[in-house]
């Protein structure tokens, strides 16, 4: 057990201002990690579906544009046009905001809990590059998503943008090398994020189990490769002229 | 391996008191027998310091057999040094080579302020134990030990958790200064056993809440598991997360069961 070293009462560190204030699940860091994990799963579902949908790029303009139109129509005629699309958008935006808010809270807590670094920093034994850079890989992805929306959803960042012509917009966008490179870099950052995140969710959700723990790394790698591999193939296909 | 004598250089964090400024000081440590433990090596260095009229290096230690959890320092950037599953007192100098420079620092975390040199205040761990790391049982005559059957696997797992010696290496190694592995081990040790059931949900809630008043959060870096002298698994952290979530709902619905 921890030793009972005599300290002056006013120097007792456990009597000082607590790092955490407030009660309830979300004020707890364990609760915030549940939120990170669940919103992370929602976002993972989205990036996977988004990648699969974009494979239509290889089927040509007609298919791709029809797919874009279908996204706006789902639910019709029971629901108004774009209704279900907006339901998904609101769910996604909420998930992203919650993910960001929890990340912010946890980051502040962790910085406060560990203010001093070691003079001699030998390599970490287990903590890998991905786990230590989650907040930075996340921020790169966030910056990219904002640009991506301006580029291909609103069209404000894409001079050749024409509403509804999904295929042509994508091709026009990736014909600018800077955009293609940014897209690839952001996807690699997403890959680093997912390499740790897709492994980590099981632990945060309390779903780790010795029976399948060994499979979690494989799952994370496979998920990352599928999503990032698919995504990165699009700008490469445009730049090499496979898709034009 | 046969006994050898090696010459070392130590860079040690010296800090006269809790509020004093600290700094690294360099010491020559010639003639160190490789059969010595790390703490015995420090003893030798300290005796030489005392002979020269200098202040010896303060460090915590007690059992020197890896079971009390008193010892612990950062040796070359790693909690308890380079050997896995080993407390500082069980680390031997044969792990080092002639001519090595060894950097020795105290455990660092906001919740573990330095008292002096390599000694840190780990009272925050005591606060976590006080919050729920116990069972309520009538004292008096000891009950028959085998009265309550416990499945072998469960007993083994509880024992794995109970192996935690509370040294604080998990906190010291964690980039977030989190005490998840310690707290999870203490929670699991009791929550797995029948004797721990009456207070299961209040225990996990109270201990996690107390933990979070002092320590950071878990990002699943796994660094704690790697430095733990008792090899405690992060599976216990997942178990604690699960019980913490359940406790949020159980306490209210089954008030009578929450102890
Ligand atoms: C909006 C920008 C983003 C930021 C700032 C961000 C930040 C973070 C941080 C800091 C963590 C680690 C939290 C911790 O363990 O302490 C994390 C975990 C995670 N993130 Fe993100 N992230 C972002 C976007 C995304 C996206 C787009 C996805 C999915 C495609 C995602 C999936 C995950 C997953 C699955 C985890 C693991 C949760 C866990 O450890 O249980 N994140 N994120
Ligand atoms: S001195 Fe007791 S564990 Fe090292």
**Major sheet of chain B, described briefly?**
5 strands, mixed
- Percent of residues in helices of chain A: 55-70%
Radius of gyration of chain A: 22 Å
Strand content of chain B: 5-15%
Order of helices and strands of chain A: HHHHHHHH
Question: Strand portion of chain A, in percent?
Answer: under 5%
List keywords for this structure.
heterodimer, A: 244 residues, mainly alpha, globular, B: 259 residues, alpha+beta, Ubiquitin-like (UB roll), Fumarate Reductase Iron-sulfur Protein, Chain B, domain 2, 2 domains, 5-stranded mixed β-sheet, two-stranded antiparallel sheet, 8 helices, binds protoporphyrin IX containing FE, binds FE2/S2 (inorganic) cluster
Please summarize what this structure is.
The complex is a heterodimer of chains A (244) and B (259). Chain A has 244 residues and is mainly α.
Please give a structural write-up:
The complex is a heterodimer of chains A (244) and B (259). Helices cover 65% and strands 0% of the residues of chain A. Chain A has 244 residues and is mostly helical. In chain A, helix 1 crosses helix 3, helix 1 packs across helix 7 (177-204) and helix 1 crosses helix 8. Mean pLDDT of chain A is 91; it is low at 6-10. In chain B, 49% of the residues are buried. In chain B, a hairpin with a 2-residue loop joins strand 6 and strand 7 (119-120). Chain B is 35% helix and 14% strand. The model of chain B has no long low-confidence stretch (mean pLDDT 94). In chain B, the strands form two sheets. A five-stranded mixed sheet of chain B has the order 2-1-5-3-4. Chain B has a two-stranded antiparallel sheet with strand order 6-7. Chain B folds into two domains: 5-116, Roll (Ubiquitin-like (UB roll)), CATH 3.10.20.30; 123-258, Fumarate Reductase Iron-sulfur Protein, Chain B, domain 2 (Orthogonal Bundle). Chain B has 259 residues and is of the alpha+beta class. The interface between A and B is large, with 56 and 70 residues. FE2/S2 (inorganic) cluster (FES) binds at residues 61-64, 66-71, 87-89, 165 of chain B. Protoporphyrin IX containing FE (HEM) sits between chains A (33, 36-37, 40, 43-44, 47, 96, 99-100, 103, 106, 134-135, 138-139, 141-142, 193, 197-198, 200-201, 204) and B (217, 219-220).
């Amino acid at each position: 057990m921890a030793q009972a070293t005599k300290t002056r009462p006013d120097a007792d560190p456990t009597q000082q201002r607590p790092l955490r204030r407030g009660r309830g699940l979300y004020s707890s860091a364990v609760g915030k990690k549940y939120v990170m994990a669940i919103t992370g799963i929602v976002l993972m579902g989205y990036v996977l579906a988004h990648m699969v949908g974009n494979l239509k790029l290889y089927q040509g303009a007609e298919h791709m544009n029809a797919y874009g139109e279908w996204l706006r129509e789902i639910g019709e005629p029971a629901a108004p046009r774009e209704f279900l699309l907006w339901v998904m958008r609101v769910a996604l935006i909420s998930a992203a905001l919650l993910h960001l808010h929890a990340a912010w809270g946890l980051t502040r807590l962790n910085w406060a809990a560990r203010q001093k670094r070691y003079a001699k920093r030998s390599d970490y034994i287990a903590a890998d590059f991905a786990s230590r850079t989650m907040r930075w890989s996340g921020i790169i992805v966030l910056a990219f998503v904002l640009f991506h929306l301006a580029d291909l959803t609103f069209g404000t960042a894409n001079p050749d943008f024409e509403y509804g012509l999904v295929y042509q917009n994508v091709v026009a966008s990736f014909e600018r090398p800077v955009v293609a490179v940014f897209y690839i870099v952001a996807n690699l950052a997403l890959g680093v994020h997912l390499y740790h995140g897709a492994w980590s969710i099981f632990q945060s959700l309390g779903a780790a189990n010795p029976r399948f723990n060994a499979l979690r790394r494989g799952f994370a790698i496979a998920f990352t490769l599928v999503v990032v591999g698919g995504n990165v193939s699009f700008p490469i296909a445009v730049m090499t002229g496979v898709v034009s | 391996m046969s006994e050898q004598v090696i010459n070392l250089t130590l860079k040690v964090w010296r800090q006269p008191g809790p509020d004093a400024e600290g700094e690294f000081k360099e010491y020559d440590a010639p003639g160190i027998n490789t059969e010595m433990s790390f703490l015995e090596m420090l003893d030798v260095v300290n005796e030489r310091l005392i002979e020269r009229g200098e202040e010896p290096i303060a460090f915590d230690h007690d059992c020197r057999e890896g079971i009390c959890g008193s010892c612990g320092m950062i040796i070359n950037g790693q909690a308890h040094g380079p050997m896995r599953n080993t407390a500082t007192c069980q680390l031997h100098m044969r792990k080092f080579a002639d001519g090595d420079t060894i950097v020795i620092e105290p455990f660092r975390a906001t919740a573990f302020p330095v008292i002096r040199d390599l000694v840190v205040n780990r009272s925050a761990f005591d606060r976590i134990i006080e919050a729920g790391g116990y069972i309520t049982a009538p004292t008096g005559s000891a009950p028959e030990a085998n009265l309550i059957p416990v499945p072998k696997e469960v007993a083994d797992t509880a024992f794995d958790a109970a192996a935690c010696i509370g040294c604080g290496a998990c906190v010291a190694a964690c980039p977030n200064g989190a005490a998840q592995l310690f707290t999870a081990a203490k929670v699991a040790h009791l929550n797995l056993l029948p004797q721990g059931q009456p207070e299961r949900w209040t225990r996990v809630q109270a201990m996690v809440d107390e933990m979070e008043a002092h320590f950071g959060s878990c990002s699943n870096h796994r660094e704690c598991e790697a430095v733990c002298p008792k090899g405690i698994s992060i599976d216990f952290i997942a178990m604690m997360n699960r019980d913490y979530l359940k406790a949020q709902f159980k306490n209210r619905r089954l008030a009578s069961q929450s102890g």
